[in-house]
Amino acid sequence: LLSHFSSIGFWGLVNNAGISTFGETGWLPMETYEKFADVNILGSIRTTLAFLPLLRKYKGRIVFMSSIIAYFTLGNGIYSMTKAAIEKFCDALRLEMKKFGVQVCIIQPGNYARSTKIQPPLSAEEIWSELSEEEKAVYNKEYVQERANFFNSILNEGSTNGNEVVDAMVDALTSPAPKARYMVAKLKEKVLVFVCALFPTVVMDSVLSYALSK
User: Quick one: how far is CA 184 from the chain centroid?
Assistant: First the structure.
């Protein structure tokens, strides 16, 4: 593969693959955490390392699909965790690649669940059936139903204008001066990120706790 591209040039790599799920920390088995780390974090790193020699040679660009959920979480901490990890990987890579003329860009979409179908709706029964006996002893079906309704309502609010994210990816690959980060999100989502970045943690926790209680 690398020898094939060496003859025609290799200019850009987009790390887009990702999986998502919903669930409180103790609801998910260790195998799920390992799978998410393997796909969402290590998958992008594996691809990057494989093409790094060509990207340095041709002064190419590397684009990573992150999410505003890297800054906060509302019921999908496992997905948030992987996106936060990718952000830090990109921060290191971006600085290291400057001396080679390789630019590293991060796309940070808001809620585009209806465009990507990355997360199908989850029923309370489906979640409950997967819980360990220990978790079932702590929670009840009513609570699980409440959480499922909340998360599914977020999915239903997702934008259908996926082209907005694609446009950001194209700009990152083709612009003479691409941004390090492209936040493609609604105003209220950007406000959440702003609060998370600039206010004390206790403020953000209060905001998110209020949202989760609704």
Answer: 12
Nearest to 109 by CA among 67, 76, 64: 67
79 is catalytic: yes
pTM: 0.89
Q: Which of 79, 112, 139, 182 is catalytic?
A: 79
CATH number of the domain encompassing residue 88: 3.40.50.720
Which residues of the chain are modeled with pLDDT < 50? none
Give dist(CA 69, CA 164) in Å, integer: 17
Beta bridge partners of 15: 64
Q: Whole domain around residue 166: which residue ranges?
A: 12-213
Contacts of 186 (CB under 8 A, 6+ apart): 110, 111, 159
What CA–CA distance (Å, rounded) separates 119 from 154?
11
Distance separating alpha carbons of residues 69 and 80, to the nearest angstrom: 5
Q: What is the DSSP string of 34-52?
A: HHHIIIIIIHHHHHHHHHH
pLDDT at 7: 62
